[in-house]
Amino acid sequence: MQSPGRKISIIGAGAVGTSIAYAALIRGVARTVALMDINADKVLAEVLDLSHGLEFVPRAEVIGSSDPAVCADSDVVIFTAGAKQRPGQTRLELAEATIELVRTALPPIVEVAPAARYVMVTNPVDVITYAAGKITGLPRNQLFGSGTVLDSSRLRFLVSEHCGVAVQNVHAYIAGEHGDSEIPLWSSASIGGVPLLDWEPLDGGRLLDAAARATIKQEVVQAAYRIIEGKGATNYAIGLATARIAEAIVNNEHRVLPVSSLIEEDFHGISDVCLSLPTLVDAAGAGPRLPIAMSADELAGLRRSADTLKEMQARFGL
Description:
Layout: E1 7-11, H1 15-27, E2 32-36, H2 40-51, E3 61-65, E4 76-79, H3 91-112, E5 117-120, H4 125-136, E6 143-145, H5 149-163, E7 170-171, E8 174-175, E9 183-184, E10 190-191, E11 194-195, H6 210-231, H7 236-250, E12 255-257, E13 260-263, E14 273-276, E15 279-282, E16 285-289, H8 296-315
Helix pairs in contact: 1-7, 3-4, 5-6
């Protein structure tokens, strides 16, 4: 019997999906965490492993199945499943296969959890989010991507290390694509209320000049490649980031997060594309975007990022 209270379901019991489940349990995000994967033996083993640690986390239960019915009555559904790369298969072909997987897997889940908020995590997340919206017909507030929440966390960490301050005191966002064309919004960034572009080094800190900012941006863009080269996948930080998104939804926090959602109206010449901008996230899902100030260079970069994503959408016939 399921426990009463909040429920999140995670589609895909791989490294990312199980890291999200683990983070959600530790943070006490939900009373029920459901895992769904086509590999029934794998998902049941993951459920058993997670369940053995329930003594040490806020009260919860973990369930799992290969049947979409396990997601019924979810408050949040997190989609991490992706097509497995075959030998000789290009990244473009892999993305096309993932879109087809979404086309097959997502509608039955929406059928059993029509009121849930859907957070897409599978990469390329912006294009997958756009495709999922087209496939399901769900509105932008109800279905959106994890976007650059993780990228922004990477940016804040690197700035904090460079300037010698706690990462919690750094407020800065990555916008645009979750990928190579993403851009840091330096002009609106701050440390403890001090505009980042006016930052003066403290004891142990360093000057955050244009060269330092360029280096930090490059490190953010290259972060996933470095991690994948070393250990094969990124999972812990995206697990924490996605659990935080789910927490903002189930607790109706009105938290500002740079999630990826459909731009329906004209936004500085950008429309009909999913990309990340600082957005209010609460029980309704992805709410209004903040009217954040951007420099001319940042706005031009955001448009280039949008063009990159639109080219990808066109390749997939979206």
